Amino acid sequence: MLIGILQTGASPDALRDQGDYPDFFERLLAERGLTFRRWSVMEMDFPASVQDCDGWLITGSRFGVYEDHPFIAPLEDFIRKAWDEHVPVVGICFGHQIIAQAMGGRVEKYRGGWSVGPTQYDFQGEKFALNAWHQDQVVEKPPAAEVVASAAACENAALLYDDRMFSVQPHPEFPKEFMEGLIRVRGPGLVPQPVLDAATERIDTPLDAAKMADRIAAFFLNRQTRAEMRRA
Question: What are the record's GO terms for cellular component (predicted)?
């Protein structure tokens, strides 16, 4: 199954030797029946059609979905087109937020501040520890979305839209080493120091990235299987 990675952000230059955002997703989802192609939509490189791939994955970004960047509106149009044409979409962090915004939800900076580092999420009774790096979050879910995960400081941590779109706020693709780098490189002056210190204390928490990768792959592959059955 061919997945198009829509890149909306980039690793800091100081951490680029660990990989760029699409690299992390290809590693996360490796050996799960998926192949990949990349588009840098943040640089206005968009696919010609939502049918160019079997599914789409929207990355994280340092940008806010409510900010005035040239790629925001076209990406929202692409998301709605994919919805209309039943092409599956997965969104992570910024991707989670822009899907929600495109579908009628609301995103803003969380008044409770930043979530950073290993964080516990409740996926309908199953606990997942995943790395977080965000202050923005979905504060009002779209009508079409069902909440399928939450955290103490993030009510709408994962959303499911029928069988067409699935999005999560945390970063299953970020390993410990990259999170340590973000804390060191991007954190100072952006994130309050007590939040960074607390994240550093939790940095060795075992992560459930592989379990989340299984869920993402299953979402794509099961969606494809159902589509093939309808065409048969």
Answer: cytosol
